[in-house]
Amino acid sequence: MSSFKDANVLLEVKDLRTHFKTDNGILKAVDGVSFTVHEGETVGLVGESGCGKSVTNLSIMRLVPSPPGKIVGGEVLYRGTDIMKLSEKELRNIRGNKISMIFQDPMTSLNPYLRISTQMIETIRLHQNMTKQEARERAITMLKLVGIPSAESRIDCYPHQFSGGMRQRVMIAMALSCNADLLIADEPTTALDVTIQAQILELIKKITEQLKTAVILITHDLGVVAGMCDKVCVMYAGRIVESALTDDLYASPAHPYTKGLIASVPKMDGNREERLFSIEGQPPNVIDLPPCCPFHPRCNRTCEVCRHAYPPVKQVGEDHYVACWLACSEEERKGALEGAENNGK
Amino acid sequence: MENKEVILSVKNLRQHFPIDGGGLFKKTIGYIRAVDGISFDVYKGETVGIVGESGCGKSTTVRSIAQLYKPTTGQVIFHGVDLCTADKDTLLKERRNIQMIFQDPYASLDPRMTVRNIILEPLRIYNKRNLLDKNYTEEELDEKVKDLMEKVGINKAFVNRYPHEFSGGQRQRIGIARALALNPEIILADEPVSALDVSIQAQILNLISDIQKEMGVTFIFIAHDLGVIQHISHRVIVMYLGKIMEISSSDELYSNPLHPYTQALLSAAPIPDPKLERTRQRIVLEGDVPSPDKERHCCYFYDRCSKRMDKCACAVPPMFDCGNNHHVACFLYDDKPVAEPADDTPTEGELKLRKKTENKAEN
After folding, report:
1. I need a labelling partner for A196 at 20 to 30 A (CA). Which of A75, A284, B6, B37 fits?
2. Nearest C-alpha of chain B: how many angstroms from A118?
């Protein structure tokens, strides 16, 4: 797979932190996430439910409901401008225009009272200087592009007249109708059947290659990631624990959590008699996490230092980063352990 | 599998749900044919997996087997008794041996009952009617609950907690404990791992195979994830639009899928291996699953099939035996030039239904 190292950086997320205030304490949904997206690249964010995948992406668009949520730190640079510092008006120029989103359930993101045409024309005219007729034509072209049969008549239908897969197609058409540079797809196929999922993934792949759109794909399905993404970030308890090019990640996962995740997927060519590898225990509660590796209670290779300090991010290969004490040298581990003990005293 | 004892036999099962036309009298204007004539046997001690897309009738099939719906026509024979026509007492007695695990562990447990009461409820009901092997005292039942909790891997000390205090995986374990309470012969598991994360899913799948090895329970296991089905089942049934498309042993089905639908389904499932994903050829099916509200006289997969022939439009394909215990409902494997329809001797209820439709057509 080609590397996107030479392409321009489109989006750079630096040390993003989003916290939610709850009755039980501060919930650190996203706690120091950094990654970059190059032009035309597809980046996958994988992790179990509650690991902060979706909140990361809502934070990028500044869509986190506040209160209770608050982006407490970090930068999101879109072509060099920090989205966090923009005014609401400047932000609207980017939202839906330069960066657009599709969600898991297409029924909740389409307005059931309005025709598809009304909703699509509204989006297009908001961002582009077009007459109603031009916008309508643009909408029809987009619907044809995503493979809606007889788009000229179907455009005047209501959302309920479409099936789940078709609705997701409409959402993709709407999201890309303003020539967005970046498409954030939040579990776009989780609600769909395998055969429809294959159709939609194929479509996203084809259309983003054609329009040269970068994609951030959020999913929990490691199979989807394998087929779609150039780069993968694995999240756990609000942080990225490992990021690598897709091939590297599957060939040589460095973090025990990534290893466990890949091993626990039942494979279609696997031996049925074998027990599945399983990661014991539950994902941690992210309220008031102690300063330690959040994965250590479930990890099969814990050492003393994992209980006392969060591991630094280490490079283990080309474009392959991991946050795990196993990747660190003996001295670093010792140093961190002593530091933590001194702090404790 | 040949010499195994048949424990459950489903014969020509149909489950049609009426569509209300609205208005004052809610006249029935049609039927959704959720399950439209399926037959299969389940052998003792095996796991039968049922796969298919949503709306193909997987869940309806197991619910009809458990008699949660009264099947429209057909037979479900268990221990030589047809459950569809059995009276209330026989049903109660036989149901003890057929238990269910449901998909959503958040919805299937009563939030106002403690774990003890949830697991104890089936035991209490059967104990009261003296249908258990002996009459248990309350203390003995409590002991049983604790054993069950240990078996499914929940701390015994949590016996007085409520479902909301547990995570999804643990709740599914409680659901499994409740299903095991009466020591059933068959457990019908309706997508028990679909709502869970991958790491938790692996835990539950391992638990289920452990239980099967230890207690010899037969499972009918529904999932839409083909990897899960391959892992857990000995035999697999592929369903589409309320019909069985293919039945085969799991290894045979995954290495040699015969039905065009199974082939498409297998090729659509994503594989967590980037090199394989990029190189393999994908059969992408056109269109969506059609609505199951019409009576069909052609192959149910005809509209979306890439290999359809003229004869597929003439009749519903019967199950063809392709050897090696591999049965497939597709005319591609028929050596006769003219389509012979499936053996479709209508049952009494079916005839009644047809008469009703005919009457309606005349009016």
Report:
1. B37
2. 25
